[in-house]
Structure formats: C-alpha cells, structure tokens
Amino acid sequence: MNTAYKKMTSHGSISIPVAMRRELGIEPKDPMVVEESGGKIVISPYTLRCNFCGTTEGVNEFHGKGICMECAGKILEKLGGGK
C-alpha cells in the first residue's frame, strides 16, 4: 500500500498524487465515491451499478440510473413488452 501525506485545503479538498492515479487508472474528472468507515475516510473510483440487483457487469445508464441487461429484460417481460 502506498502512503502519501497531504494537507487539506481551506475548502476541504485533498489531491490524489499522480503516481497513485496512474497506478489505479484514474483520469481527471472521473467520479469518485467518498465513504466513512470505522473512523477512516475511504475514497474509491465510482463504478456504475444496477439499481435493481447491484451487479457492475453489463450495466448501462438510463435517466441517471444504472440498469443491467438482465434486469431490463425482466422489466420488459413484466410490462408485457418482451413478447
């Protein structure tokens, strides 16, 4: 695990060192998740998830929400459009 010591700005921002961003494949303007866990702040890249089943595989964005093909098929079937 890499460690870096950074000061927080007066606006509450902290920059992620470029070496860490490169290692993780994080690009400028990539969305990130910021969570508190056990008194620690955890920052990780945001991965679009299906709002219905929670999978990250084959997920598409629809009106700002994530939906996988399997759940989309189930919705179509339920609505009678899968005939």
Written account of the structure:
- This protein has 83 residues and is of the alpha+beta class.
- It contains two helices and four strands.
- The strands form two sheets. It has a two-stranded antiparallel ribbon. Strands 3-4 form a two-stranded antiparallel ribbon.
- A hairpin with a 2-residue loop joins β3 and β4.
- The longest helix is centred in the C-terminal third of the chain and has 11 residues, at 69-79.
- The protein is elongated.
Blueprint of the fold:
Blueprint: H1 18-24, E1 32-37, E2 40-45, E3 59-62, E4 65-68, H2 69-79
Secondary structural class: alpha+beta
User: Could you name the ranges where pLDDT drops below 50 across 5 or more consecutive residues?
Assistant: none
Overall, the morphology is elongated
Mean pLDDT: 89
Number of helices: 2
Main sheet overview? 2 strands, antiparallel
| Major beta sheet, strand line-up | 1-2
What is the helix/strand order? HEEEEH
Distance between the termini: 52 Å
Q: Quaternary state, please?
A: single chain
In what range is the share of β-strand residues? Answer: 15-25%
Number of strands: 4
Q: What helical percentage do the residues reach?
A: 10-25%
**C-alpha-based Rg, rounded:** 18 Å
